[in-house]
Design a protein that fits this description.
Layout lengths: L3 H7 L15 E7 L4 H12 L4 E10 L2 E8 L5 H8 L2 E8 L3 E8 L4 H28 L2
């Protein structure tokens, strides 16, 4: 079939035994869509905090997509790390050992996360209220 060889060549091979795919120390990332510059900046900051990422450089922003250069401290399983660590859902369009094309979308928090945050806020509010009440009673 025409084009099948190209697609297979673009995909990074997975190591034997089910190990994670390892990307080169320099990776070009074509990512988007980004609604505005603030969304791109947030994504860039998230990438910079990933393990083994030494440098993140946005080379170009065209339409709603960005071309980002990543420098890793050593070859690493970048896609697996991105999926596990970033607060984005990733739809990988293509990938090779030195280039990734991905669509990104901000993940919505799950119900359990929302419940936990709400519980922590209520608990913190009750603690602050109790301290204020104690101060009023004891400290004139």
């Amino acid at each position: 079939m025409p084009g099948c060889g190209t697609r297979a060549a673009e995909r990074p091979t997975q190591a034997a035994g089910g190990e994670e795919t390892v990307f080169d120390a320099r990776v070009e990332l074509d990512a988007g869509p980004f609604s505005d510059f603030a969304a791109l900046s947030a994504f860039e900051r998230s990438l910079a905090h990933l393990p083994k990422v030494e440098d993140v450089y946005v080379r170009r922003l065209a339409d709603d997509r960005a071309l980002i250069e990543l420098t890793l401290s050593e070859p690493a399983p970048l896609l697996d790390t991105m999926r596990a660590s970033l607060p984005y859902s990733l739809d990988v369009r293509s990938a090779s050992h030195n280039k990734i094309v991905v669509n990104v979308a901000v993940q919505q928090p799950t119900v359990s996360v929302v419940k936990r945050v709400t519980y922590e806020r209520v608990r913190a509010y009750r603690t602050v209220a109790a301290v204020k009440h104690y101060r009023k009673r004891c400290c004139c």
